[in-house]
Every structure is written in C-alpha cells, then in structure tokens.
Amino acid sequence: MRLKMKIFIQQIIVFLFLLGLLPAHAFVHRHRFIIKEAPYSKLCSSKNILTVNGQFPGPVIYANTGDTLVVNVQNDGTQNITIHWHGVKQPRYPWSDGPEFITQCPIRPGTNFSQRINLSDEEGTLWWHAHSDWSRATVNGALIIRPANKTNYPFPRPAAEIPIILGEWWKSDVQAVVNEFLASGGDANKSDAFLINGQPGDLYPCSTNDTFKLTVEKDKTYLLRIVNAVMNNLMFFSVANHQLTVVGTDGAYVKPFKSNYITISPGETIDVLLKANQNPNHYYMGAKAYNSVVGVDFDNTTTTAIIQYRGNYTASSPPILPNLPNFDDTNASFNFTRSLKSLADKTHPINVPLNITTNLLFTFSVNTLPCEDESCGGPNGDRFAASVNNISFILPRIDILEAYYKNIQGVYGDEFPSFPPLNFNFTGGSLPVELQRPDRRTEVHVLEYGTNVEIVLQGTSLLGGVDHPIHLHGYSFYVVGAGFGNFDKDKDPLNYNLVDPPLQNTIAVVRNGWAAIRFKADNPELGVKSMVYALSFRTSRKLGNGNGIHCERWKSSQEKLLPPPPDMPLC
C-alpha cells in the first residue's frame, strides 16, 4: 500500500513539473493527519474532543512559497470530516480545497483522502481547519509559508516566529452545542472561554497552569503569527506595554505600521513584530471579543498568555494587563482594519483590477424561517437563518464541483442573482417583517474566465444587523473601499484606494455597512464564501447558510481544472 502511495505521489510531482505548475525550486512536504478523539481537561472539567494527531491546536505546517503539500487525512473519528486550506489559492486544482458538498464529499469515518495543496504566491501566515459543521472549533492549525529560497522577508529577520492561535472552548461537547441550536432554531450557547494556543489563561477558574508562556530576550524582535480560529467573533488582541508593528495579513505583506492593538476577523491572520524593549518583567498578552449588537449574549471574557523576559528579576504578580478596546468599540475595530495597506514595492508588486467588467452587489442579512407552532428559539418563535441576496443556501448531497465537472444535472441552479432581488433601504431603522423571509435554494453565480470583478458586500439591518465575516475561496482580493450605511455607487467609488489596497482572503463587513473588493477571475473553481459552511460567503451569525457561490466558465485547455485524484471521497 505504501509503495502504491509513493508511486502515486511521484506521478503527481512529475505531472506538475510537466505542466509547469511546480517551480524548479519547489519542495514537496508530506504529512499524515489522523482525525481522532482525545481527552482534554480545561476549566475544572474534562471531555473528549476531535483532533488531528491528538493535538489541540493541531500541528503547525511549514513550507516555502511555491512548495507543494501532500497530506494524507485518515478519519478515525466518529463523524464526517473535511480539511480546508484557508487562503491557499489552489490554482486549477480545487479538489483539495475542503468545504464539504462544495468541492468534495466528506471523508467518512474509517476512510482516508490524500490532499494535494499547491502553494503559489502565498507568503506569510495562513491556516487549515475542518470544514464540516463546527468541527473546526478543535480541528485547526497554522500554515506558515516562508519566502522561497534565496529571498528574504521585507523586514529584518526576527529572533523567532511564534504562532498565536486564538480559539474557543465549551465545557459541553461542541457537537451537542450544534445539535441544540439546530433543534431549537435559536442562537448557540456562548462559549465558556477563549484560548491562546489552546490555553485559556490564568484569569479563568482551574487554569493557573493552563497558560501559554513566551520567553523573550530584551531588545530582540519576535514575529507573532496570529490566527483567529474563534468560531464567529471578531477579536481584539494586545500585549501589555508593548507596541505591535503590523507587517502582514492573510499570506501577504502590508506597509508596516505601529498599533497598540489589533482587530482580527474570524478566519483572518495578522502578522506582527513584537520588540522586547521593556523592563524585564512578566506581561500579559490578551484577547477578547468585539461585539457591536446590543442585547446579544456573548462570551465577554478575556484570554491571556504571558510574555516573560529572560533574566534575574522579581516579576510583577499578577503580570501587567494590556489595555484592550471596549468590547463595543466599533471605531477601534473599523479604524484598525482600514489601516491595512499592501506593501506594494518592487519585490512585492500588486495588480489591482482597474477596468471592471463584472459588477456585483451582494447583501448579507440575518433572517428568520417559520417554525411550527411558533415554538423555536428565534425572534417571534421563528427559526434563525441567514442569506446573501435573500437566498439561504441549501447544501446539496453531491458536491457541486463534481456535479459541475461531470455535468450532473439537478444538483444546483445557476441563477444566483447579481444584485438583490428586493431593493430597499438596506440599513434603515424600521424594515418590513416580510423582508426577513429568505428563499432557500442551491444556487451558484457563474463568472466568465478572465473577467475583472468588483463585489460590493452590503450588510443589512434586518434583525438589527451584525458584523459579517467574509472569506473567498481560491482567491485573494483587494479591499478597495469600506464604509458605514448604504453603498453609494456614485460617491463611494471616488474614495476607493486603487494604489495600495490590502490583499486579503477574509474580512469583516462592519455592521450595517459595506465593503468593496476586486479580483480577476482567473482561477477556475467554485469560489466565494461566508463564515459557516461551503464555498461561499458566510455570515457571522451562528445559524443558517448565508452563501453566495460562484464558479467560472473556461475557454481553453490551459484554463481548465486539472482532473480529480483517484481517491476522492464518495457521497
């Protein structure tokens, strides 16, 4: 069996070289992910959680720009699983992208799938995670992509690089949390703690020894690679008495700027330089949730880790706490995000699409669906839902990519609207109740290969509105503009940043506001995503499928998808 696998991998490598998709300097990294339950104790209680190789967070994967990963995923757990490589473009090869029933069927218990992940121009911090239900709460890890051989960071090499994964913990079983809110139609129970590298920190009960500690030497600089693996919350993060120099986001470099804190969306990564330039002592790093919606119950606790200077001194007890923004400080969140700008130098050029050929406007809403006897846990006894352009996405039972590739009829429609079917004051204060009811369908939006696309992502105030984390599969995009209220097609484009907009794959659309993104549709696959399921736009709400999927038509053999691997999971 091992001999067959080795021959198969060698055939893949030769195939890639012949196609010119694997650079001559590229290296192939092989990993084995065993999905299995493992016992963990936190917050005075114990439970089994789903893990990769028994680790939580999962193993950190290291590679260089242009390398290839071959990851054999063996599912020894009790539930279906997929693994998504968040932020990897996977040029012409979306078969290993990971979202269940979108690019693949799930890996069933007792089976395995060998994923091939082709890195292209990504450089910086990305991550991988499960992409089925809420399994990603514990099945996740960092993907660190360093510069290719004979190239360097655009900043002095740090003394060390440290992954910082922000996570979340429920005392109860995560799947039980999912089952409960799916059954009730209400919101999910809030978590019991946030985590830094799998540890809650000593501000929580029974957690004195469950605190991540980072030892530093005075006057040395450290690269913190921060991943927000929290399920749905934007997070504030800071280090007491230390300024952070932001140098990257989502696998791309930004113009360095200093800040006392960062705001990081679910699924986003931020790279910061930390200079250990304070008096030797112990200092907390801390993170807490940002929440802009009044009256919504959320986890308002703070997770901490400790920066400890090397040397002989008497440390403060307790360590010095950071000054984090207030949990509802919208300006702090928005202003940090708008400070991100692409590095855009000769070594790291950008290519912002200027001549837009496809304009789209997608609205994101929290909705409700009727419930029998008005007995559900949502507003007015209804069931929570979410939508994009008033469509709440229904997952098919055959993956859409396979249906598209094999021309299987009846799996999905291709009538996802380019603009909202209902035109109303999207962020108005009093909206008709009938606007809360979405259509439930499985629809995709088809893009012509090679088109320059602009999508305006518009939040709505239905049910009060929320901040909407957005992720795009198969692409990074330029965030050319953002603002509050309704997008004005005549005025707002005049203020677009077309010189050095940040290149990202995940952003959060501010509550009752908008963001405009641009990209070139040059990677044939199913593309756009929201934050709960599928290959589409996810809403930040914990319930429902607010998804808008796109796929591309291609014209020549050079633009076509590469064929699927022989061990694709079966539905």
From TrEMBL:
NCBIfam families: laccase
Listed transmembrane segments: none
A GO molecular-function descriptor: copper ion binding
The protein's required cofactors: Cu cation
Keyword Transferase recorded: no
One of the protein's GO biological processes: lignin catabolic process
Organism for this UniProt entry: Solanum commersonii (Commerson's wild potato)
Its job: Lignin degradation and detoxification of lignin-derived products.
SUPFAM superfamilies, per the entry: Cupredoxins
Catalytic reaction equation(s): 4 hydroquinone + O2 = 4 benzosemiquinone + 2 H2O
Lineage: Eukaryota, Viridiplantae, Streptophyta, Embryophyta, Tracheophyta
The protein, known as: Laccase
Family: Belongs to the multicopper oxidase family.
